[in-house]
Write a structure and sequence with these properties.
It is a single chain. This protein has helices at residues 40-46, 94-97, 163-174, 190-201, 217-223, 235-242, 258-266, 290-296, 310-322, 341-350, and strands at residues 2-7, 15-20, 28-38, 56-57, 61-69, 81-84, 114-118, 124-127, 137-141, 145-147, 183-186, 207-211, 227-230, 248-253, 268-276, 299-302, 332-336, 355-359. Helix content is 25%, strand content 27%. The chain is globular and about 60 Å long.
């Protein structure tokens, strides 16, 4: 038996309790977690913004050590250090054939079947986003495992499973930021901090961070922001002032709110790119007039998992980390236990802190 934070039902508080995880079956891997990041997507799963069968063990950003493998597993062996991949691509669907694994039609299959049981009464549990890393151990398919390159601290490596791949990919794959371009980043949470560091790696400038909390300024500047703005009604105007009157070449929205997306769009120069990373609810509706779409010639695009191929991008990120260009530890503002995850959810709602990391 292992301890886990269980979501009994949508909009119910997490309960830390013991669960029973079966031995890995064919093609499966059992991992002992070292750390798990608390992501806004976990909050969205808990409140019903994103669909998730319940009761469930949430958590999808994790790293740990392989302790057992099922029949037929060849990619990893017991003792290997690994990162969990919450959106493993099948390699065979329409989108995988287009070399767009981040859109894989079967990536979410792991969350739809029970994977463990409550120790107390044998009730079946589902794995949040197929990974269930808010637990001391988990069992996942082999294709949800990424070998961790050498030289990366195992606990901090958890951030590679979501925040860093998403933020880096938003800059380098989705928005395709070029050296010297101006970038405005809306939301300085875990993903926003990764976006800021990735913009710095891309040699962008100026890099303007926007957040509702003045306490985020120090974090933002440490991550690479050259300027920091408190969100207000004239944010777009302030960004134009900082960019020669034109607006940012690229605006990256990491919040998922209609008003923030609209502001990011308005802060983007004519012909620029607005990339939406934040996951909003179906009730968050953004409107544009047909005339402004024509006149401004901007590109508005969504971004799923940073438009990343984790197997391709993880070695690249590892090299940036070893070279000191990417600092995983700087994104972590709190190291907590399983019992403190609800408090970390509340901090995200209130706009406090960067990434909270559960340490096992």
């Amino acid at each position: 038996m292992v301890r886990a934070a269980v979501l009994p039902a949508v909009n119910q508080p997490l309960t830390v309790t013991e669960i029973e995880i079966p031995a890995p079956g064919p093609g499966q891997v059992r991992v002992r977690l070292a750390a798990a990041g608390v992501c806004h997507s976990d909050l969205s799963l808990s409140n019903g913004t994103l669909r998730q069968p319940v009761p469930a063990v949430l958590g999808h950003e994790g790293a740990g050590t392989v302790i057992e493998v099922g029949e037929g597993v060849t990619a990893v062996a017991p003792g290997d250090r690994v990162v969990l991949n919450w959106a493993p691509s099948c390699g065979a669907c329409h989108f995988c054939a287009l070399d767009e694994p981040w859109l894989c039609a079967n990536a979410g299959a792991g969350s739809t079947a029970p994977y463990a049981k409550l120790a107390s009464d044998g009730s079946e549990l589902y794995a949040g986003l197929g990974t269930a890393v808010f637990a001391e151990e988990t069992v996942v398919p082999e294709n949800a495992i990424l070998p961790l390159p050498d030289g990366i601290p195992l606990t901090d490596a958890a951030l590679l499973g979501c925040a860093v791949l998403t933020g880096y990919g938003a800059v380098h794959h989705a928005a395709r930021v070029r050296g010297g371009e101006s970038v405005a980043v809306f939301g300085v949470g875990g993903v926003g901090l990764s976006v800021l560091q990735s913009a710095r790696i891309a040699d962008a400038g100026p890099v303007i961070a926007v957040d509702v909390s003045p306490a985020k300024e120090e974090l933002a500047r440490a991550a690479g922001a050259t300027d920091f703005l408190l969100a207000s009604d004239d944010t777009a105007k302030q960004i134009r002032k900082l960019t020669g009157g034109y607006g940012a070449d690229v605006a990256i929205e990491c919040v998922g709110r209609a008003d923030t997306i609209r502001t990011a769009w308005s802060a983007t120069r004519r012909g620029g790119r607005t990339t939406v990373v934040g996951i909003g609810g179906a009730d968050q509706v953004v409107t544009f007039s047909a005339l402004e779409l024509f006149y401004f010639g901007r590109t508005l695009s969504g971004c799923v998992y940073g438009n990343s191929d984790p197997a391709r991008d993880l070695p690249v990120l590892a090299e940036h980390i070893r070279a000191g260009r990417l600092d995983l530890g700087a994104m972590v503002t709190e190291r907590i236990g399983l019992e403190e995850i609800p408090a970390a959810f509340s901090a995200m709602v209130d706009g406090r802190g960067g990434r909270a990391l559960v340490i096992f």
